[in-house]
């Protein structure tokens, strides 16, 4: 007897013109016209976050159909990674080509939620391009990795407005992926994948052979 085929679901894909049209293709700096490249992307049910080559973060709110812009003070440098989180407050972490990491605590219209935009900086540990970011589900921990193999843990106290950061792991090759759950940080580099147990500060490699 022939098995019953599962139903086919058709999906339609189209460019997000309403989003792309809200981001400039060029900006003027003095007498120079600078092309804006889109360099990083993350999405969730509430927001679409787009990083750019001019250091501007474009954050599109899906519920309100509004685009907002956030940037770093000082040097205009490319954003290399963005990571959204929706917990009690909406958070977005941003990493740049020079190793700067910032967290924006977004404003919410819901009762009891954050009413003022706040920014936290991971100060001075990374010295090279940010290649990965990972949140804990409650937004109190942020892990950041760079292309020199450094992984930094940042503890955020949103109520007190404090961010304390420390170097927790250093690998010999670039970090390509981070994911965190239940006190275990999954780390993938160009050479290997490992589990870092944050309480014991111990490492367990996944597999035995290095990547080629």
TrEMBL record:
One of its GO terms (cellular component) is cytoplasm. It comes from the Eukaryota. It holds the Pfam family WD40. GO terms for biological process: protein exit from endoplasmic reticulum. Gene3D superfamilies: YVTN repeat-like/Quinoprotein amine dehydrogenase. Transmembrane segments: none annotated. InterPro entries: WD40/YVTN_repeat-like_dom_sf, WD40_repeat_dom_sf, WD40_rpt. This is TCPR2 protein. It comes from Eurystomus gularis. The lineage of its organism: Eukaryota, Metazoa, Chordata, Craniata, Vertebrata. The gene is Tecpr2.
């Amino acid at each position: 007897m022939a098995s019953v085929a599962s139903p086919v679901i058709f999906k339609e894909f189209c460019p997000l013109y309403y989003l792309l049209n809200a981001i400039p293709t060029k900006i003027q700096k003095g007498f120079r016209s600078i092309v804006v490249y889109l360099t990083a992307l993350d999405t969730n049910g509430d927001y679409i976050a787009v990083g750019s080559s001019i250091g501007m973060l474009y954050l599109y709110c899906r519920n309100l159909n509004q685009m907002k812009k956030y940037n770093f003070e000082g040097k205009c440098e490319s954003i290399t990674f963005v990571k959204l989180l929706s917990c009690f407050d909406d958070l977005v972490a941003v990493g740049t080509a020079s190793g700067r990491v910032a967290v924006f605590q977004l404003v919410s219209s819901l009762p009891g939620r954050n009413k003022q935009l706040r920014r936290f900086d991971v100060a001075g540990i990374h010295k090279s391009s940010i290649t990965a970011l990972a949140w804990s589900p409650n937004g109190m921990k942020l892990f950041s990795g760079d292309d020199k193999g450094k992984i930094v843990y940042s503890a955020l106290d949103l109520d007190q407005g404090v961010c304390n950061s420390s170097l927790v792991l250093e690998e010999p090759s670039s970090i390509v992926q981070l994911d965190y759950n239940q006190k275990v940080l999954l780390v993938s580099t160009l050479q290997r994948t490992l589990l870092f147990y944050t309480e014991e500060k111990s490492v367990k490699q996944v597999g035995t052979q290095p990547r080629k």
